[in-house]
């Protein structure tokens, strides 16, 4: 019998792996959305196994900063399929205006605290070299804010919401080859990101600031009626999820950021979380103390995980490659990093 590498054994011990049934996730040469199949008898794939080894002492090395040859606007969510990338973005035409007479806790109070504003929602297809291949507009009236996206092995899943909390959203299924979008359902809330559960066929999503964790049973919502959902409060509060992707068997890997005030000024705290979709509970969490422009220039305080990200194993099986797109001036570069767990240094 072939002896397993020590890092796989260690990952199994750390994660407390169960013997749940497997879901098909593709192979290394196939679609990169889940390019690594779960190990026999485990719910983890190679991405989640490596992620469980990562922590605050993970070694991050920038590999490239790739300019883009089109106006990216305010980037939101990203997926990588083979060597092609997809990113959503919002083009703001008229910013929203806050209503100071209305306050909301953004959890149990669904009050609207600002105007709708105007804008356009985009989905861009581009190469690893930053060259635009195609684009499609997903604007739906006052819903022009596309969020975090996912790939189910066949289609992209894209939410497009009003640019304000407690509002409304439309969720689309998009053919990644043609960028043709099909409306699947609506929701009476701002949905900032969605993940398709390959094991159950259900759709999961996060609200504004990811304070609500949504689930839609698509088999019971074939007419696409708004509100046919359930939600629970997010038990994690350190970061707000901006982009999430399905991994392994019923896991969701999310990136995001939290803003905090300190005696030395305001700070941005970036991070990555692994959630168990069966319970909506946190499995593993790591900080990402990196910033756009590596802490200098006009975007020095913008956390690397502020918006769109993609994470996948490198060919060496010991490190991860991360793709990030965050911006503050309507023009994002594709930032590529390698992340090496301390135990594999």
What descriptors fit this protein?
4-stranded antiparallel beta sheet; mainly beta; 5-stranded antiparallel beta sheet; 345 residues; Tachylectin-2, Chain A; 2 helices; disordered N terminus
Could you characterize the architecture of this molecule?
This protein has 345 residues and is mostly beta strands. The chain has a single domain (56-99, 106-344), classed as 5 Propeller (Tachylectin-2, Chain A). Helices cover 5% and strands 43% of the residues. Strands 6, 7, 8, 9 and 10 form a five-stranded antiparallel β-sheet that branches. Strands 1-21-20-19 form a four-stranded antiparallel β-sheet, covered by helices on one side. The chain has a four-stranded antiparallel β-sheet with strand order 2-3-4-5, with no helix packed on it. It is globular. The model is unreliable at 1-41 (pLDDT under 50).
Please give a quick description of this structure.
The chain is mainly β and 345 residues long. Helix content is 5%, strand content 43%.
Strand and helix map with partners:
Layout: H1 6-15, H2 46-53, E1 59-66, E2 74-81, E3 84-94, E4 118-127, E5 132-137, E6 143-146, E7 150-151, E8 156-162, E9 169-174, E10 181-187, E11 191-196, E12 203-207, E13 212-216, E14 230-233, E15 240-247, E16 251-262, E17 265-276, E18 281-287, E19 308-313, E20 320-325, E21 334-340
Antiparallel strand pairs: 1-21, 2-3, 3-4, 4-5, 6-8, 7-8, 8-9, 9-10, 11-12, 12-13, 13-14, 15-16, 16-17, 17-18, 19-20, 20-21
Helix pairs in contact: 1-2
């Amino acid at each position: 019998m072939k002896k397993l590498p020590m890092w796989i054994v260690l990952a199994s011990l750390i994660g407390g792996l169960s013997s749940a049934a497997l879901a098909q996730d593709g192979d290394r040469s196939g679609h990169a959305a889940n390019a690594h199949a779960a190990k026999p008898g485990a719910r983890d794939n190679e991405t989640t196994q490596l992620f469980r080894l990562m922590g605050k002492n993970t070694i991050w090395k920038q590999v490239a900063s790739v300019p883009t040859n089109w106006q990216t606007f305010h980037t939101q969510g990203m997926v990588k399929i083979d060597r092609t990338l997809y990113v959503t973005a919002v083009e703001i035409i008229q910013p929203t205006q806050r209503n100071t007479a209305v306050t909301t806790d953004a959890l149990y109070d669904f009050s609207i605290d600002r105007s709708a504003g105007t804008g356009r929602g985009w989905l861009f297809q581009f190469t690893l070299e930053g060259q635009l291949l195609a684009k499609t507009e997903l604007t739906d009236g006052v819903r022009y804010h596309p969020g975090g996206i996912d790939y189910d092995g066949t289609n992209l899943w894209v939410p497009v919401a009003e640019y304000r909390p407690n509002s409304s959203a439309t969720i689309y299924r998009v053919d990644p080859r043609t960028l043709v979008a099909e409306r699947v359902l609506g929701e009476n809330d701002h949905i900032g990101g969605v993940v398709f559960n390959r094991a159950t066929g259900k759709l999961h999503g996060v609200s504004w600031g990811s304070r609500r964790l949504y689930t839609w049973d698509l088999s019971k919502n074939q007419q696409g009626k708004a509100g046919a959902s359930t939600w629970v409060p997010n038990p994690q509060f350190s970061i707000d999820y901006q982009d999430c992707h399905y991994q392994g068997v019923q896991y969701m890997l999310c990136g995001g950021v939290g803003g905090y005030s300190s005696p030395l000024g305001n700070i941005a705290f970036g991070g990555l979380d692994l959630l168990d979709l069966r319970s909506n509970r946190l499995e593993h969490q790591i900080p990402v103390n990196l910033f756009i422009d590596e802490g200098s220039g006009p975007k020095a305080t913008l956390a690397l995980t502020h918006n769109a990200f993609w994470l996948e194993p490198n060919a060496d099986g010991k490190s991860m490659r991360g793709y990030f797109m965050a911006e503050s001036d309507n023009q994002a570069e594709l930032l590529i990093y390698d992340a090496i767990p301390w135990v594999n240094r």
